Each structure stands twice: as C-alpha cells, then as structure tokens.
Amino acid sequence: MANENNNDNLESYSTEATANLERAIEEFADIIEDKKNQDPNIRVFGSLQIVMNGRKRRIADLGNVESPEDPMKIELMIYNKEHIEEVLEFIKQNGFPAKNEKGDQFIYVRVPKPSRMQLEEIGDDVNRRTNAMCGRLTKAKTNTGLRVKAAMEKEFIDQRIATMATKKINAAHERCTKEVRIIGLLGRKKILGSFFKTVEKDDPDLLKEITKRSKLENIRLELENKKDLGLKEEKIVSNHEERSSSNELSENNVTEQIQTN
Q1: Could you give the 3-state DSSP secondary structure of residue 107?
Q2: Residue 95, CA distances (Å) to 11, 71, 100, 120 in order
Q3: Residue 114 CA: distances (Å) to CA of 72, 121, 192
Q4: Of 33, 32, 99, 108, nearest to 68 (Cα)?
Q5: What is the CATH number of the domain that holds 79?
Q6: Does one domain contain both 196 and 240?
Q7: pTM of whole model > 0.85?
Q8: What's the DSSP call for residue 193?
Q9: In the chain, pLDDT over 90 holds for what percent of residues?
Q10: Following CA atoms 182, 183, 188, 191 in sequence, which dihedral angle do they give, to the nearest 10 degrees?
Q11: Phi and psi for 69 in degrees, rounded to 5?
Q12: What is the percent of the chain where pLDDT is above 70?
C-alpha cells in the first residue's frame, strides 16, 4: 500500500508539472501562429504609436486594422469617431498616403512593403516572447521542484520518490523548452524570409533538428503514400478476381442450363 501511495505521489507531481508545461507550449504556438499568419504590413502599421492625451497609444489599440483585398491597402476602422481627424493627420505625417470620407468611420491607407529593419523588429519581438516563455517554463519547473522538496521535508514522500519526480520534471522542462525555441525560430524564419539570420547560440542546433524532423516527416508521408497505393492495388486485384470468379460462375451456369435442356 505504501508503494502505491508513493507511486501516486510521484505521478501527481510529475503529471501536473508536465501538463502545465505542455499547456504553455500550446498557448505560445497559438501566439506565434497569429504573428506568422498576419501580414507584415498590418503588424508594422498597427505598431505605430501616437500620443493622445499625453499617453502613447498603438494605432491597433485605437481601431481595427485589416487588409481584406490587397496587403498594400489597409482599412483602419477607428473605434471612436472623435479620434479620426487626429489619427488621420498622424498617419499622413508618418509618410502614409491616407484618406477618410466625411462621416465614414474608416481611414484608407496605402502602405509600402515593410523594410528589413521593420521585419527585424517583428522578429526581435518574437525572440523576446520566446525567451519570456522559456522563463515561464523554468519558473513552473522551479515551483514544482519546491513543492517536491517541501513534501519530502514533511515526509509526505521519501527521497527516492522525490528524486524520481525531479528527474521526470526536469526531462519534461528540457523537452518543452526545446519545443518553444523551435516554434519561435520557425516563426522568425517565416516573418523574416530572406532576411533571417541566427541570433541565439542554440539556433544552429535547432535548425539541424528542424531539418531532421522535416526529413523524417517526408519519409513517413512517403511510406504512407506507398501503403495507400499498395492497398489500392490490392483492392483493384481483389475486385478483378471477384469479377473473374463471378463471370466464371455465370459461364458454368449457362453451360449447365444448355446441357440440361
């Protein structure tokens, strides 16, 4: 019974920690996916900051920024109509051709392709978010480690279980941290395109890991395609044999009827 309780304690600490770490990965993946999918023009334009009432505000905080038809043409729907004139003037002062029809809540803006510097700023933001998430994972690991230590000191678990739980938690932390860094790296590559360069010391190793995973995925897909093709061929052969067998039976029946007559 004591053994079962110890195993339950081990699983409760390591399972909870792993679940928290993996949940953080999912949240981070969603954030980076949004950044990858959003057009760089919208990101750059939405990040412009205007001073209103003595306070800096992002354009994206003052209205909805969209590019429904052409990435070079932005439609900015200002939430508060009283801000339209001020925002319109600010946009023009920043070098963007913009117009607004009287009574219309939209400001229509033409934007150039984002510069290398602007894209690198977005890439840097992804990198900051990546490092912040890795810090969050480390904090989660540390907190669970403190709980394990406290449980051992209060003799809820013994040294052996504490050591095993710590090893499991550390392994989960290392795996999840690696996944976060890979997700962040892929996000930067997608955003920067030809301007991408490695900036973190583990970037080269992660790129090798990404290449390795890509090759393994291609092999898996190739094997699946071959398997599907083999199943299709087997089905064709089987259908052909069934038709041949059916035709043979029909011929035998006809022969038997002729002989009977």
Answers
A1: strand
A2: 59, 17, 16, 20
A3: 10, 11, 10
A4: 108
A5: 3.30.1360.40
A6: no
A7: no
A8: G
A9: 32
A10: 140
A11: -115, -45
A12: 82
